[in-house]
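Worked example 2:
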Amino acid sequence: MNRRRFCGLAAAAAVTPLLGTFSTVPARAAVFHDLHFRALLHGSQVGQHSVVFRAEGERLAVTTHIDITVKVLFFTAFEFRHDAEEVWQSGRLASVTSTTNDNGTALKVTGTAAADGFRIIGADGPFLASAKLLTSNTLWDSRLVRESSMIDVQHGGEVGLVAKLLGEESVDTPQGPVRARRYQIITPHYAGSLFYDADGRWVKGLIEQQGEILEYALTS
């Protein structure tokens, strides 16, 4: 998604009344469970997205792995691979390292917390972001829907974010159906819908890529 389209969609979302208030969303899940999703296109699996947590006191290491390949006949129409490790300390980002293959474009990002913010280095060079921001990978944290910007750990820098509550839906999970709040989310690089259950756990995603909608179905 290009920045011009992001600005247009963001303006449209901003004037649409919310169906509730973000204060009803839990600040974050009390216990972090590993998340494993199948990425589906028209019902067929085209990849996976996983988030693995390692907690030690106030320190939380989060490993994100995304591997998606869409083929048309014998040709690869789209591929996206992303691996990142983020370390969070007392709820704030302490460091990040990531590598990305965005449809043939190789990207690398590193970043560390500093006294004056969070210093991140990406494709466009160094950037000083706010120390309080979440990242483009923190779809697992329901606080994301209350933010207006985030640290881009795929390209570097800081990007805008618009989220809007669409209502509640039933979502199938490995533990059975749950009621989940659905939020439309728009950023310069991806858009779609995120679903969070009553505990703030990410249980489903509908992510736009290359004009198609990928469904993230939770497997564990």
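The chain is about 5% helix and 60% strand. The mean pLDDT is 87.
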